[in-house]
Amino acid sequence: MTQATQWIFMNGAFVTKEDAKVSVYDHGFLYGDGIFEGIRAYGGNIYRLREHLVRLYDSAQAILLTIPYSMEEMEKIVVDTVRKNNLENAYIRLVVSRGVGNLGLDPASCKEPNVIVIAEQLALYPKEFYERGMEVVTVATRRNRSDILNPKVKSLNYLNNILIRIEASLAGAGEALTLNTEGYVAECSGDNVFIVRNRVLWTPPAYLGALEGITRNAIIEIARELGYVVKEEPFTRHDVYTADEVFLTGTAAEIVPVIKVDGRVIGDGKPGSITHELLAEFRKRAVTDGVKVYPERQPVT
Ligand code: PMP
After folding, report:
1. Where is the signal peptide (predicted)?
2. 45 three-class SS
3. CATH number of the domain bearing residue 29
């Protein structure tokens, strides 16, 4: 059986995966100068695409990068890329790099950004992740300071996150909690964090040094609709250790229960009931909360 061609959007045209190449003089490659988004489609529905695009354009604004498409055009490009690859459930990567320049740091030499959209078959996390829960550790690498390189900008400079991720792997953990420089819990290498205590949910405020996750915001909304109190307030490792439930949120991860943090068993060592309730509600809504890729197709009932 021949493999279907994977089409990648590059600067206005679709090219094959094999032909999708970027110059070594691209400042995204040389300096991590650019921005990106990780987006997900559920059953032909691109989950909260508008929110992802708002975050992308905010990131662009923060680093003085002009995206050569309007938000409406970009929305169509993302939808067309998923359609072109005939995908229903997809992981989508949108990258805008500063583009080709000279070896100097000054982006003035970069005349045009590179805009790339990749959509591929979704690689699901193993089921047992959600059924049994995950173990995480706190690592020594602190999250970037908001007043130096604001984690709200989803930039191609992910070295801070990669160092955090490496520490998690070295410790044999699935993810890592990272603190800000004041010692408050910030987030994980690629996920946001929530704790539950006495049926109240807590997540660090983004100003402490976290990406304002789309999944995080969705969970805050869903939890409030279900009647839970959600606090976006600072907390410490002690609060995590003594929580009834801990879970992580992210586009790829969705909602992952955490059952051990730095060797401390959380609750009864099993994924919590509120975590399960939120995951089920999130998945139920994910197939409709977004932009339809195939509006002509009837929903399967
Ligand atoms: N924090 C970081 C550092 C991330 O890279 C991500 C995205 N993988 C998240 C949190 C989760 O954000 P979202 O729910 O928008 O995927």
Report:
1. none
2. strand
3. 3.30.470.10
The answer to whether the CB of 144 is under 6 A from ligand 1 is no
β 134-138/175-179 pair status = parallel
pLDDT at residue 1, as a whole number: 54
CA of residue 102 to ligand 1 center, whole Å: 31
User: Are residue 151 and residue 193 in the same domain, yes or no?
Assistant: yes
Instruction: Tokens for 138, please give them.
Output: 């706190």
Per-10-residue mean pLDDT of the chain, 301 residues long, equals: 86 98 98 98 97 98 98 98 97 98 98 98 88 97 94 96 98 97 97 98 95 98 98 98 98 97 97 98 95 84 52
- Write out the DSSP string of 138-154: E-SSPPPPTTTS-TTS-
Please state the pTM of the whole predicted model.
0.96
Q: What is the CA radius of gyration of the chain?
A: 20
Q: Please, is 266 exposed, middle or buried when counting C-beta atoms within 10 Å of its C-beta (0-12, 13-18, 19+)?
A: buried
CB distance 38 to ligand 1 below 6 Å: yes
Contact between 43 and 22 under an 8 Å Cβ cutoff? The reply is: no
Rounded Cα distance between 30 and 287, Å, is 38
Cα separation, 35 vs 59, in Å, equals 7
Do 221 and 116 share a structural domain? Answer: no
